[in-house]
Automatic annotation (TrEMBL):
Active site per UniProt: Y126 (proton donor), K197 (proton acceptor)
Protein name: Malic enzyme
Pfam hit, one: malic
InterPro entries: Aminoacid_DH-like_N_sf, Malic_enzyme_CS, Malic_N_dom, Malic_N_dom_sf, Malic_NAD-bd, Malic_OxRdtase, NAD(P)-bd_dom_sf
Species of origin: Hordeum vulgare subsp. vulgare (Domesticated barley)
């Protein structure tokens, strides 16, 4: 983002310090005073100063001349080489590692590539490949890219956080690795998720890379295989208790805010994220992506799906397979939407049948329901318990099926065919990640409903040709909203992320769908327009923050929407400009000095 940590020093300032250059480019005092300080100063070899597009005079000035091949080349050539190298890899995990190394070595080039090839590269940086990366983290580990804080560090978190070398962190994504996608407890291997999510923060919403902090807390793991794996890089302790986790998080949250008072904190992929959300949401600019981000993004897709189905909100019957953080978060957000459409809260709530591993969630099922399930527990089942998804489907005859269960293939052809039989436009959202956990594939949804399914999945699927017609899937993934939620919160300096801000993020999505996309029954805007989508989401988030009076940058209140949206876009980090600006800035300095490096 535009809130760069370095100041734009006048040329005279650089001149005065020229004589003191004593080390190579990345450590050079001049480099530190230039606008473009190293994005990741903590990793000495990760430097835009070695970019092969820099001109010879600039290389000489930076004292990197001779350290890269002689030709100053264009970005187009760099890109061609990167894509060719990527094509040489034979597995997705190799491609993931290649891209991680590129990000480490030349952060701007990585983001140029990502933003130019979003559709192809996001699945390698994010779901599904990041899932395998997390599973194999201790095997494939190469370089530090975030912070690891352990339970053993309690009492010292504030001091340890000082080790993070970037002065201005704007946003962190924090996980304990205990529920990584639908893959279970992966311990510190979960670090792939904060790194991947924050890469999308930069790629989708233009948060400057050096303003992001991937954070993994090692609170032990219940994964026995990891504990016995000699390569496992986390502590060998069982999971700490809920009380110990709470005390640790109290300290962590205070320590983060102490060092970076404006920091936005995103919780991600925690097995039981409800207590921390309730505990911190009023005192910190924080949100839980799995409950709230997912709720908003799926509500955004459902707005279009309900319209296209031709069925009024009150007549929808939604069966949710999965009643965890995401299932309950999504159902609650759609309740809010139905209420906005005129239903009472009770009427809206009655449109939902939630299913967990024990069957339909009812108030008389005989087991003690987790707190988050109680709101949706059915009381109209007349003592009958429905143990399987098939039973529930037959009982409810739904118009909507949502999968947030981690059970790949749970939406069987029989279930999909019934959905096609009962509905003109069945709404089918298999949302579990990664692809292997998706409750059905796009092809299955299309072929079992004669192409009539209104579809969105958590992980991406390719278009499908059925009976000679091409169908395009939607991706109902929180990546459509969390970058904009974070961006909006940062830009308006909100002190909280309110429920209205979350709701607004979902409402923003349908406003970005083109007429052409509507004609294709698409429920989400094209992923290639994700930067514009994130700017629109940020606009909606800022407006909601203003209404809730939690914003602190009041000057934004006076801007009309179009002006504010442009202002937001202007604040976004643009990787395409970075290297060029570095080149231009330093070339100006070189010309002004009329000298090249003191070494030549
Ligand atoms: N598309 C998206 O943007 C998002 C997708 N997700 C995905 O949703 C899935 C669930 O995530 P969370 O809700 O956070 O996990 P969770 O662990 O909180 O909930 C999982 C739920 O699935 C239920 N379940 C497990 N086995 C079952 C079975 N055999 N039959 C019926 N229900 C079963 C559990 O009882 C629980 O209610 C994950 O795969 C995750 O990747 C989560 C967040 C965002
Ligand atoms: C997308 C996401 O946040 C998840 O699958 O957990
Ligand atoms: Mg998640």
């Amino acid at each position: 983002m535009a809130t760069t940590s370095a100041t734009q020093a006048p040329i005279a300032h650089h001149t005065a310090n020229l004589g003191s250059i004593s080390s190579h480019g990345p450590q050079s005092p001049i480099a530190h005073r230039a606008k473009h300080t190293l994005p990741t100063a903590h990793v000495p070899n990760r430097s835009a100063h070695y970019d092969t597009s820099l001109s010879i005079p600039v290389r000489k000035y930076l004292q990197t001349y001779g350290l890269t091949p002689p030709r100053a080349e264009s970005y187009e050539i760099q890109k061609k080489r990167c894509l060719a190298q990527l094509a040489l890899k034979s597995t997705d995990i190799e491609r993931f590692l290649y891209l991680s190394t590129l990000r480490y070595n030349n952060v701007h080039l990585f983001y140029r590539l990502l933003t130019d090839h979003f559709t192809e590269l996001t699945p390698l940086v994010y779901t599904p490949t990041v899932g395998e990366a997390c599973q194999r983290w201790s095997e494939i580990y190469q370089q530090p890219e975030g912070m690891y804080l352990s339970f053993e560090d309690r009492g010292h978190l504030s001091n340890i956080i000082q080790n993070w070398p970037q002065a201005h962190v704007e946003i962190t994504v924090v996980t304990d690795g205990s529920r990584i996608l639908g893959l279970g407890d992966l311990g510190v291997g979960g670090m792939g998720i904060p790194i991947g999510k924050l890469a999308l923060y930069t790629g989708c919403a233009g948060i400057r890379p050096e303003g992001t902090l991937p954070l993994t807390v090692d609170l032990g793991t219940g994964n026995k295989a990891l504990l016995e794996d000699p390569l496992y890089m986390g502590s060998r302790r069982e999971k700490v208790t809920a009380e110990e986790e709470k005390e640790f998080l109290d300290e962590l949250m205070a320590a983060l805010k102490d060092r970076w008072p404006d920091i936005v904190i995103q919780f991600e992929d925690w097995k039981n994220p409800f207590p921390s959300l309730e505990r911190y949401r009023h005192d910190y600019a924080m949100f839980n992506d799995d409950i709230q981000g997912t709720g908003a993004v799926i509500m955004g897709g459902i707005i279009g799906a309900v319209k296209q189905s031709g069925v009024a909100p009150k007549d929808h019957r939604a069966v949710f397979l999965g009643s965890g953080s995401a299932g309950v978060g999504v159902a609650k957000q759609i309740v809010d939407y139905f209420v906005k459409e005129g239903l009472t809260e009770e009427e809206a709530k009655n449109c939902f049948w939630l299913v967990d591993s024990k069957g339909l969630v009812t108030s008389d099922r005989g087991d003690k329901l987790a707190d988050h399930k109680i709101y949706f527990s059915r009381t109209d089942n007349k003592g009958e318990q429905y143990k399987t998804l098939d039973d529930v489907i037959e009982y409810v005859k739904p118009t909507i099926i949502m999968g947030l269960s981690t059970i790949g293939g749970a939406f069987t052809p029989e279930i999909l065919q019934k959905m096609g039989k009962w509905n003109d436009r069945p709404i089918i959202f298999p949302l579990s990640n990664p692809s292997s956990k998706s409750e059905c594939t796009f092809e299955e949804a299309i072929s079992n409903t004669d192409g009539r399914a209104l579809f969105a999945s958590g992980s991406p699927f390719h278009p499908v040709t059925y009976n000679g017609k091409q169908y395009h899937p939607g991706q109902g993934n929180n990546m459509y909203v969390f970058p904009g939620i974070g961006l909006g919160t940062i830009l308006c300096k909100a002190v909280q992320v309110t429920s209205n801000m979350i709701y607004a993020s979902g409402e923003a999505l349908p406003t970005m769908i083109t007429e052409e996309e509507k004609d294709l029954a698409l429920l989400y805007p094209g992923i290639t327009r994700i930067r514009d989508v994130s700017a629109r989401v940020a606009l909606y988030v800022i407006r909601a923050a203003q209404k809730d009076n939690v914003d602190r940058l009041h000057s934004l209140r006076d801007m009309d929407d179009a002006t504010l949206e442009e202002w937001i876009k202007d604040k976004m980090y643009d990787p395409h400009k970075e290297t060029e600006e570095l080149e231009n800035e330093l070339r100006d300095i070189v010309q002004d000095l009329s000298v090249s490096s003191p070494r030549l």
